[in-house]
Amino acid sequence: MGDQLSFFELKEIDRKRTKEKVEAKLEKFRACLLTPELNSRPKITPNYSFDIPPTFSNAFHSSTEDAAIANADYVVERSHYIKRISMAVNRLKFKERAIIIRRYMSEDEVRDWEICNELHMSERTYRRIKSSAFYNLAFALNIVVYKEQEDKDHELCPAN
């Protein structure tokens, strides 16, 4: 058993792109919280167009129905997204969660140095914990970005 077979190899994480993805998700979360529910209104005026040929089918197509469906779909997607991010954040350690909630999930725009002062941390400790929180969130949300391996010479199961 001199040569043991590795069933998986840990790939190198692209830290910058992973951080960008997590921040984008958190910014979208804030936008979802601050955005009121969508209230699409049906069109009440007729729309005549020469570009669109008439359809002769038995299907009834109402702008009121379209608006109701769009509103319902938006509410479901929005609540699902908020729940997914909240559950991932709730799995973080206490300090990681405190940083993420204060920095990205509150209505106020809070700067990093303000959070350092509030949590009585040095800037170095704050950055280390925040970085750890980002990677834990990336794994929880399944949005980790890996670096492309230029070295594709080794195989998982080499032929003898």
From TrEMBL:
InterPro entries: ArpU-like, RNA_pol_sigma_r3/r4-like. It comes from the Bacteria. This is ArpU family transcriptional regulator. The lineage of its organism: Bacteria, Bacillati, Bacillota, Bacilli, Bacillales.
